[in-house]
Design goal:
Strands 3-2-1-4-5-6-7-8 form an eight-stranded mixed sheet, with helices on both faces. Strands 11-10-9-12-13-14 form a six-stranded parallel sheet. It is built from 19 helices and 14 strands. It is elongated and about 75 Å long. Helix content is 45%, strand content 14%.
Amino acid sequence: MDIAVIGTGYVGLVTGAGLADFGNDVICCDIDPKKIDALNHGEIPIYEPGLDKIVSRNVGEGRLRFTTDLPEAIRRSRAIFIAVGTPPKPDGSADLRYVEDVANTIAKHMNGPKLVITKSTVPIGTGRMIERILDQSGNGHKGSIVSNPEFLREGSAIEDFQKPDRVVIGASDEDSIGLMKEIYAPLHSLEIPFVVTNVESSELIKYAANGFLATKISFINEVAVMCELLGADVQDVARGMGLDSRIGSKFLQAGPGFGGSCFPKDTSAVADIAKRYGYEFQIIEAVLRVNESIKERMVSKVIGALDGEARGKTVAILGLAFKPETDDMRDSPTIPLIKGLQKQGALIRAYDPGAMENSKKIFENITYCGDAYETAEGADALVIATEWNEFRALNLERVKKLLKQPLIVDLRNVYDPHRMKAEGFTYISVGRTEDARSREHVQ
């Protein structure tokens, strides 16, 4: 099928490449000529393992193209995926200006029936808004609206697209459902479940899923606080919980709070949606409060490890992105961590395998280093903030020699506390050790 994907950000580029890999003829559009020029020269603007290969393969086989000519892309395509950004406004609601702009452009340039699919995460009612725009501003051609939310995890997006847990299709007519199943035909052979529902339910599924996962993260992070107060081990508690099939083990890893492009934005948006309909989504509101408090607590944890005084001390930060295998710095827990430490007078040395350039747009007065060992050199404490694989197998003897004192604050619980004690480190993690409780200066 001839498909246009509008927007070449994270979701749009992965979607376009994935649909082309399914055998569709795909043209990806963006208003940024520099981005399109880079893509046409084989340069991938985001860090996502395997994306460069799938793009290169489908460009080479003629199924994937990139352009800034949106009207032409609309005219040549039967199906049009909207994958533009929906950034949060200051009040937490989603900014739909780009979605509206795209809908108006589609309405203006339709030259036949079009299947218009929202891939962006959008508030409930957006599909109907697009439908009204096409009806009122269009040129007489029919536009059918479908909601097809994405569930891509950064760092494993290609696998998630090719072998998803489910495909959600929100549509109002059988023809649209049939066309969507044709687009995703290769997934039928894999027996991937298709959830077919109305547009509003599909839009809510995305928010409900991310809200629930964010809730699990905040819950285990509060359990970790209790573990520190009581002398329990959060990993044992999480395992005891997760083996219950009704709960499951995923998203029960204690840490410095959730971040990234989805959870903070989507939880804030669903809370705003509820308010607009006269309801307070109390659990989600609590999740947002807990996440902010956990991030603040991490600053106190590091300062406590430094005996309550950070001024003039050097802190080495390993990991800047909100999670490993991505360069995404959006709402990363390292942002309030580093800024909080700097506010207390700490000097920061930092290293991340993928997010260094993006972090430079956020931080000032940071010494960026070439690897973990250069980062540790001369530091008063080493903080593991993102669990990249290369931080899981550090030469601990070398690290100990490089640090001013053998102090590691592990915000991702990468290492075993008993091993670290045997190696001669003062080791502080999240919700696991009596040492963490006794050294932390938190009320």
